[in-house]
Amino acid sequence: MALKTLGPKAAAALDQELMSTCAFSIDQLMELAGLSVSQAVYRVQPLEKGRRILVACGPGNNGGDGLVAARHLFFYGYQPSIFYPKRSKNELYQRLVKQLNDLDVPFVDDFPSALAAADHVVDAIFGFSFSGEVREPFPAVIRALEETKVPVTSVDAPSSWNIEEGPPKSGLGSSFMPATLVSLTAPKPLVNHFTGRHFVGGRFVPPSIARKYDFEVPKYEGIDQIVEISPVDQKL
Amino acid sequence: MALKTLGPKAAAALDQELMSTCAFSIDQLMELAGLSVSQAVYRVQPLEKGRRILVACGPGNNGGDGLVAARHLFFYGYQPSIFYPKRSKNELYQRLVKQLNDLDVPFVDDFPSALAAADHVVDAIFGFSFSGEVREPFPAVIRALEETKVPVTSVDAPSSWNIEEGPPKSGLGSSFMPATLVSLTAPKPLVNHFTGRHFVGGRFVPPSIARKYDFEVPKYEGIDQIVEISPVDQKL
């Protein structure tokens, strides 16, 4: 069975439905999404492999998921640091930043230096609503992520990839292949171009909603908030 | 070292501080508290011991934690049902109920029948702000919890117990001893009268806040949102 995916319009509609008809608040969903991301990082980058996690956050919801993940990573015993150059003025994001400030999690300005000092990077720059051009100051960040040997975990989409078509054919992002991808709620079509370890997270989608949007909720184990998708399930 | 506890006034002040200075929303905190409770239930009542979990919810925040826990239990593969006779009109609680309705989790009216059909009960009736008398319709529920052989997990406090002094000296609740207690953020003084399995949950308290309120955050393992406190740590 092919892995069913959700295109950007369907993913946006699903998000809207979760927050309207399904009565979830964005605080709740972002908390659970960020928790999923933190569990995937714990799986691929156990503490003994190095604790310094650089979390690169974009201006929107993907960045918010990164901020939440960073907080959970702190509590697991990691040393997160945050690159968050375009801060949202939205009150929720300001609160997520304050929660990190209270843990003395550093916010860094110089991405290349921070990357050089990191054991792992979380790419929470752009999510399923990304399209078009990578805007400043992110081109240099994408380039650094393309070139680095530090393993990268991308949240919902490798940033700069087209949600339907995957990596750009040429130029910025065309050779960006993160080690890990965490698809939130459902994989996006770009996963068909992804060759790393793939997790699905966001264990909160009602079965009725999965049926309506025609995707499969994978079989989570125990109390896990993520499930790894084997390449066989993904590609057949 | 004796286990440090937080009395009802300090616990209320801590909650207020988390939601003001610390910038957490109640949605976030309740989500993480309920998640902790669900993980404790998973630990003491693994799926193979029986999946039918009756969650008894009171009118306040303790009941809200129960509603969140029930949702997570559903996703783990349990069959939760909810007894929630005094529903809050607060929008957050209405949303938590809707999230359960969308999963077809049943709300039940007849507590004794529901209890007879349950493998495990979550007591999310009263939390650390409880004092005084048990009001209708809860006296019969407490009595049933006192008498049942079905194991009970209490959230933050065995309902009807005095937060400082433990079980009532006589009458209703005086012989209520749940099998399991999940203390949220910090144990309350009543734990000194508790003889079952004791967990602490709520892995979100900044170390600076724990210092300010003078309690110890126990050592959580891995990505766990709960930690079991051994009787030795608890009683010495």
Automatic annotation (TrEMBL), chains A, B:
It is found in: Cytoplasm; Mitochondrion. It comes from the Eukaryota. (6S)-NADPHX binds at N61, N62, G63, G64, D65, G127, F128, S129, F130, S131, G132, E133, D156. The lineage of its organism: Eukaryota, Fungi, Dikarya, Ascomycota, Pezizomycotina. Keywords: Cytoplasm, Isomerase, Metal-binding, Mitochondrion, NAD, NADP, Nucleotide-binding, Potassium. Pfam families: YjeF_N. It catalyses: (6R)-NADPHX = (6S)-NADPHX; (6R)-NADHX = (6S)-NADHX. It comes from Hapsidospora chrysogenum (strain ATCC 11550 / CBS 779.69 / DSM 880 / IAM 14645 / JCM 23072 / IMI 49137). HAMAP family: NADHX_epimerase. GO terms for cellular component: mitochondrion. Binds 1 potassium ion per subunit. Catalyzes the epimerization of the S- and R-forms of NAD(P)HX, a damaged form of NAD(P)H that is a result of enzymatic or heat-dependent hydration. This is a prerequisite for the S-specific NAD(P)H-hydrate dehydratase to allow the repair of both epimers of NAD(P)HX. Residues 11-217 form the YjeF N-terminal domain. Belongs to the NnrE/AIBP family. The keyword Glycoprotein does not apply. The keyword NADP applies. K(+) binds at N62, D123, S159. One of its GO terms (molecular function) is metal ion binding. This is NAD(P)H-hydrate epimerase. Its cofactor is K(+).
